[in-house]
Amino acid sequence: MRARIDAAEGRIDAARQRIATALAAQPDNPLLLLTQGAIQEMAVDDVGAQTAFQKAIAADPSQSEARLRLGQLLMRTGRPGDAIAQFRALTELHPNDGEGWAQLLAAEAAAGRCADGLRDMNQVLAGRPDYGFVIQLSVRAASTCRGATAEQRRKALADGEKLYRISNAGEVAEAYALALAANGKWKEAEETQAAALFGAVSSRDATRQALYREFYDRFKAKQLPELPWPSQHPLFKPERPTPAVAAP
To answer: Is the predicted pLDDT of residue 170 greater than 80, yes or no?
Structure first.
């Protein structure tokens, strides 16, 4: 914890030294290895961070944070195919965490394995048909995967509409808009995405404005996106952890 505080406050060298001293006494401690990886990430040492996270996982395969951080590091450095294994392990450790399923789907889509992602989401829903968050993920997957069947796209439209009737939140609206576009309903897709964009504008959320506008422009041009989220979405482009404050 002291090492993490040092890193968060910008004292990267002190954090590295503190964790190195601890690891000299306990070289296989998964928590220490996880912390070393987190510090290396802040120090922009992705190779060192990856090595530390891998060692932490080897020492304790149930180390969720190490798997999450390693998966995000791999996504950030353009290796979604390698990230899949980490996110899949996370869904096995925490099947009720919808974000884990979203990260798995994003990695599969970015790696060109959208059919695998669609199958994974449908397998989850086969056991839990009322898992609303994963229903939204399956709508996104079926609407953007070129390997999806016409029946799967029609089901995505029906599911997307049901979700939208329950909630018109931006993420739900965008998933429904994707399903509309996938079924050739371009005007309705544009209008639905415009509603999500308007919500982001009203709340002065510049990040979401940029994300929602990418699909809005695609729908206006009658172009179906190839990915279930905009290309700059944090699921595809996770931010590098940085110190909370500058070093004193």
So the answer is: yes
